[in-house]
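Q: Can someone sanity-check these two? First one:
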Amino acid sequence: MQVNNPANSRITLDPDHAEHGLAQLVLTVIELLRQIVERHAIRRVDGGTLTEEQIENLGVALMNLEVKMDELKEIFNLKDEDLNIDLGPLGKLL
């Protein structure tokens, strides 16, 4: 799998680049989940349902995940825009 070109971020099957395409797909799913968790965390913080310790732990966990994502993007030579795959008629994922 690989991206056709940056302007058309669809994932295509290519046996010679399967590792890169798989990494792109996995990191895209992780980034989508990270954004969902972050939005939910913000709602909980704004709603006042978390203790100060929980807020601190959540912030640290989200920062650590962002650092790890940056490391993995560097390893697989991916940019943020590479994770925003095109879903055809549905538009961009992220």
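And here is the second, same format, sequence then tokens:
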Amino acid sequence: MSRNATSARRSALALSGLLLGAGSLHFVAPKFFDAIVPRSLPGDARTYTYASGVAELAVGASLLVPRTRRLGGTAAAALFVAVFPANVQMAVDWVRSDKTSSAQKALAVGRLPLQVPLVIAALRARRSPTPGHHGH
């Protein structure tokens, strides 16, 4: 396996673990996620929490399977862009809150730029060779 293919496989597996873990948390601790759903979205926050949890689980699973990894990488990149408004909402809420510490506020704001390397890793995961493809 080439260095690029190995890097792509590692990206896919790491993102898969991240997404499967985060997706599971949407069902284990939904109140946290409900709180960061942008208030401008219509409907119930819990619906968005569960829908995004299902999306994260599905995308995470697709990254595990070599045959669906290319699609999974594309979907992961799109998902990381789609959830960015929730991350912004969390940062705004935490910065404005008297209940969050300075460290929590810094963490909430500091994690916003981390979406960029996540999108890059998702796009890298797309380059993992599928069965029958030797990456020439």
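A (reply): Looked at the second one. The mean pLDDT is 90. The helical segments are 3-28, 30-36, 45-64, 69-82, 84-96, 102-110, 115-125.
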